[in-house]
Design brief:
By secondary structure, this protein is α/β, with parallel strands linked by helices. Helices cover 28% and strands 29% of the residues. The protein starts with a strand and ends in a 16-residue tail after the last helix. It binds adenosine-5'-triphosphate (ATP).
């Protein structure tokens, strides 16, 4: 089953398109890394999938159904927004009471255990928590709802490295135990490598990549060799991006494990190299179709 499907999805603010022609099909049970530079359209996409804003064009469906405002549909989704707007005068206990009353499937044990483990005192008010503690509390609210689809907008941004690692482990547990589909945006690719198995890259309001990370890595190569041997590479090589450093040239290509003679070495890219290669070349795309061969 598809967890999220968008067809020709677009959202305009005034005359500016924040997101355009977005076609995505994300299978259930995936942990999706949503990446893109500042202002790319990531939050806009998450807001559309959460149903917080309406499309200016196209459509979104979750679990095969168009987004509706009814409680049954909303119950399946949790969204932790970037600014995790928690009521500042609420205590942590108030937040949990609020969560329990609003959500029939509320997992009180999960919420309590996690807050205890994080050492977040339940008597403290939201405004007395640190930025990282507030983010953790917001995440607890999202997790304890036990959603089928969990949307997280930069959940790791205010967390220290250990906390980031811990959050990713909790997300993995959610997927393993409940088959939750998770879409999380982040600027720190290293945090995503071990956990995410699907990549969506947005750039300038357009989707550049959407696919299984393993397949994407296997379908690309880092090709390195001496600059002066550049002419020995095939003319029609699908190059995503090319950099030179001293006498060395390095290309990210859509060629998989091909080899190009003794002067050139080929290896699969890392996730970071793949993402940087595409985001640095906004016109490149790894989506299927006639635009997929870059140059
Ligand atoms: N409510 C709004 N009114 C006007 N413009 C908006 C609004 N929300 C977003 N935009 C514009 O839409 C574009 C995409 O913004 P969005 O917040 O989706 O980007 P993002 O990828 O989440 O960025 P970041 O990584 O900086 O959080 C930007 O140009 C932004 O200025």
């Amino acid at each position: 089953m598809t967890a999220v499907e968008t067809v020709g999805l677009g959202r305009r603010f005034g005359r500016t398109w924040a997101l355009r022609d977005c076609g995505l099909s994300i299978p259930e049970g995936r942990v999706v890394a949503l990446v893109g530079p500042n202002g790319a359209g990531k939050t806009t996409l998450l807001n559309l999938v959460a149903g917080l804003i309406r499309p200016s064009a196209g459509s979104v469906s979750r679990f095969g159904e168009p987004i509706r405002d009814d409680t049954a549909s909303l119950r399946r989704v949790a969204y932790m927004a970037q600014d995790s707007a928690l009521y500042p005068t609420f205590t942590v206990t108030d937040l949990l009471t609020f969560g329990r009353r609003l959500n029939p499937g509320w997992d009180a044990e999960l919420a309590r255990d996690r807050l205890d483990r994080l050492g977040i005192p339940s008597r403290k008010r939201v405004r007395q928590l640190s930025g990282g503690q507030r983010a953790q509390a917001a995440l607890v609210l999202a997790l304890a709802k036990r959603p089928d689809l969990l949307l997280l907008d930069e959940p790791l941004a205010s967390l220290d490295p250990l906390a980031r690692h811990d959050v990713m482990a909790v997300l993995m547990e959610m997927v393993a135990l409940h088959g939750t589909t998770i879409i999380l945006s982040s600027h720190i690719i290293a945090d995503l490598v071990e956990t995410c198995d699907w990549l969506v890259a947005v750039n300038g309001g357009r989707i550049q990549i959407s696919g299984e990370i393993e397949e994407l890595l296997a379908g690309h190569a880092m090709v390195s060799g001496p600059r002066e041997a550049r002419t020995l590479l095939p003319d029609r090589l699908p190059v995503v991006t090319e950099t030179t450093s001293g006498r060395q040239a390095q290309l990210l290509t859509r060629t998989g494990a091909e080899t190009f003679g003794p002067a050139w070495s080929t290896r699969p890219p890392t996730l970071d190299e793949l993402v940087r290669g595409y985001l640095g070349t906004p016109e490149a795309t790894a989506l299927p179709g006639p635009t997929s061969v870059v140059r």
